[in-house]
Amino acid sequence: MKIQALALLVALVATACDRDQPETMVGTLERDRVEIKVESNEPITAIHVKDGATVKPGDLILEQDGARLQARLDQFAATRDQAGARLSELQRGPRPEAIREAQARLEASQVITRNAETDLARARDIFERGLSDAASLDHATASWQTAVAREKADREALAGMLNGTTVEELQQAQAALEASEAASRLANLDLQRLRIVAPVSGTVDKVLYQLGERPVPGATVAVILDGERLFARVYVPEHLKANVTTGTVLDVRVDGVAETFKGTVRWVSADASFTPYFALTEHDRTRLSFLAEVEIENSAHLPVGLPLEAWLPRDSRP
After folding, report:
1. Which pLDDT band, with edges at 50, 70 and 90, does 159 fall under?
2. Quick count: other Cβ atoms within 10 Å of Cβ 114?
3. At 176, which helix (H) or strand (E)?
4. What is the distance between the terminal CA atoms of the chain, rounded to a whole angstrom?
5. DSSP symbols for 127-174
6. Residues near 91 by Cβ (< 8 Å), separated by ≥ 6?
7. What span, in angstroms and rounded, lies between the C-alpha atoms of 93 and 77?
8. Long-range contacts made by residues 46-50, C-beta under 8 angstroms, separation at least 24?
9. Minimal CA–CA distance to 28: which of 235, 317, 191?
10. Which of 68-72, 165-169, 193-197, 266-270 shows the lowest mean pLDDT across its residues?
11. CA distance 69 to 76
12. What residues does 215 pair with on adjacent strands?
């Protein structure tokens, strides 16, 4: 009987000790990884940072050859200038010299028409007398019709100059100018983006290309560890998942640091990190774990990659 009582006492003590020893969640310190990508496959001409360098937003990371895009920008700029000159010309209207030239051309056409009309009348009279053939009459008729058409064309050209530019012509010229300006801005933007700069403050984790290499468009050329935020990435066991949710406060201990930190869960994955086909059986589902991210207070000075342990405070344990 005494032996049974002693065994019960030992079991109760062991249970109390288990409750005093919290179950830990393991993980590592991490920073957000910012991948720097390129939009062009031009060769790299300069690299301005090394692995481990500290950068600020706007600091130059690397540069690519801009000769091709500069030539395209010059082409679009010339097209823009041409469209602008054409619009100015239409807005100003024809010059007085051009109007006088059109008037003189019309007067000459009128003289030619009168001469052709006289020749036609003479040819018709001769044909009616039977002194010429039909071919001569046809030739005179065609000459008169040509002269009349030329006079009409010259009169319309003069009228167009005197009436000025139409609204539709001005709208077309304005649209052409706006299109060429947009193309120039796009070409200039493409040229500027050959200078790859840091978007955030942080540490250069790795530059992935060398001088002279041609990264494909969309390739990652460098990785920056964001210096603004340090967090813990931990794995939550399946039986603790119900108690570890967004906003849950955890105690965190980092290897090599005597201080215990406070952390707040900001995200927990809804899916298990590894789910074998048998995972949902009662015996094996305890193997599941869920990835979580934890904001840690006063930890900005710590390096990434350090292993850590996190656990629920005593008053929050299941």
Report:
1. confident
2. 13
3. helix 167-192
4. 34
5. HHTTSS-HHHHHHHHHHHHHHHHHHHHHHHHHHHHHH---HHHHHHHH
6. 165, 170
7. 24
8. 46/211, 47/207, 47/209, 47/210, 47/211, 49/204, 49/207, 49/222, 50/204, 50/207
9. 235
10. 165-169
11. 11
12. none
Chain-wide mean pLDDT for the chain? 84
The residue among 290, 304, 203 whose CA lies nearest residue 255 is 304
Name the residue with higher pLDDT: 3 or 60.
60
Q: Which of 218, 265, 258 is nearest to 244 (CA)?
A: 265
HSE, CB side, 13 Å, CA atoms: give it for residue 50.
0
Residues in a beta bridge with 251: 262, 311
Residue written as tokens 């109760």? Answer: 12
The whole-angstrom separation of Cα 160 and Cα 176 is 22
Place of tokens 């395209």: 72
15-30 confidence digits (pLDDT tens): 444 445 568 899 999 9
Amino acid at site 277: Y
Q: Which two tokens stand for residue 149?
A: 């058409």
Maximum distance among all Cα pairs of the chain, rounded to whole angstroms:
160
Spatial contact of 41 and 215, defined as CB atoms under 8 Å apart = yes
User: Contact, 293 vs 233, CB < 8 A?
Assistant: yes
Which of these, 203, 235, 198, lies nearest to 301 by C-alpha position? 203
| Residue 288 pLDDT > 70 | yes
Q: How many whole angstroms separate alpha carbon 206 and alpha carbon 17?
A: 47
pLDDT score of 29: 93
* DSSP 8-state code for residue 78: H
Helix axes 67-92, 167-192, angle to 10 degrees: 160
pTM: 0.62
